[in-house]
């Protein structure tokens, strides 16, 4: 009784073409800003994987990539507690790190990751996020590079999931309410 996943989408916010165009622009900006330095991209799993794959190919510089898994326990009391589920493979000491994120919402996850990475004495740390939702930001946290700034809607696609699904949608969309609210 499964429906094609596109039927679950209420509205497409950014098409595949708009995404590719914006990622190319971000890549060009990073290429300019990191020329002459060894760039090290650190990605937070799993939602950022499509963005990482596109962005790294839009950066025309020598670079390296590493992955980190974190999980947030928002829970019913929204403690914002974060835990590392998979650590980096390589040291970041003395390196120019750019954190590649899918979306910043409250900023809890990234605040934790930033604190964690800064303890490892990198030469610099900057943040590139594909989407920014500033409406619910708890801590004062700003990305250095932002793909699109969006209102406080729950979006899916291009890596972003609902219950681990829809990550493979090639566009960013808003899920129909009856999908997550269930049948009336
Ligand atoms: P934050 O800690 O900034 O509140 O959010 C971190 C994580 O929450 C994101 O990396 C993402 O996994 C999830 N998240 C926040 N907003 C959205 C959204 O609109 N859609 C989806 N699919 N995930 C979101
Ligand atoms: Mg993320
Ligand atoms: Mg998720």
TrEMBL record:
This is Hypoxanthine phosphoribosyltransferase. It holds the Pfam family Pribosyltran. Belongs to the purine/pyrimidine phosphoribosyltransferase family. The keyword Magnesium applies. It comes from Armatimonas rosea. It catalyses: IMP + diphosphate = hypoxanthine + 5-phospho-alpha-D-ribose 1-diphosphate; GMP + diphosphate = guanine + 5-phospho-alpha-D-ribose 1-diphosphate. Gene3D superfamilies: 3.40.50.2020. InterPro entries: HGPRT (IPR050408), Hxn_phspho_trans (IPR005904), PRTase-like (IPR029057), PRTase_dom (IPR000836). The lineage of its organism: Bacteria, Bacillati, Armatimonadota, Armatimonadia, Armatimonadales. PANTHER family: HYPOXANTHINE PHOSPHORIBOSYLTRANSFERASE (PTHR43340:SF1), HYPOXANTHINE-GUANINE PHOSPHORIBOSYLTRANSFERASE (PTHR43340). GO terms for molecular function: guanine phosphoribosyltransferase activity; hypoxanthine phosphoribosyltransferase activity; magnesium ion binding; nucleotide binding.
């Amino acid at each position: 009784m499964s429906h094609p996943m596109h039927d679950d989408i209420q509205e497409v916010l950014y098409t595949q073409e708009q995404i590719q165009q914006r990622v190319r622009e971000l890549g060009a900006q990073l290429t300019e800003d990191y020329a002459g330095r060894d760039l090290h991209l650190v990605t937070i799993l799993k939602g950022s994987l499509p963005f990482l794959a596109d962005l790294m190919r839009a950066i025309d510089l020598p670079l390296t990539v590493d992955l980190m898994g974190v999980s947030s326990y928002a829970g019913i009391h929204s403690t914002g507690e974060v835990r590392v589920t998979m650590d980096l493979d390589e040291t970041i000491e003395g390196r120019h790190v750019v954190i590649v994120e899918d979306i910043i919402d409250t900023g809890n996850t990234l605040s934790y990751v930033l604190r964690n990475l800064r303890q490892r004495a990198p030469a610099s740390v900057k943040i590139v996020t594909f989407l920014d939702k500033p409406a619910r930001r708890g801590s004062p946290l700003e990305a250095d590079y932002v793909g699109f700034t969006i209102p406080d809607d729950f979006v899916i696609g291009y890596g972003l999931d609902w219950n681990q699904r829809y990550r493979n949608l090639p566009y960013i969309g808003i899920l129909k309410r009856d999908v997550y609210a269930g049948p009336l």
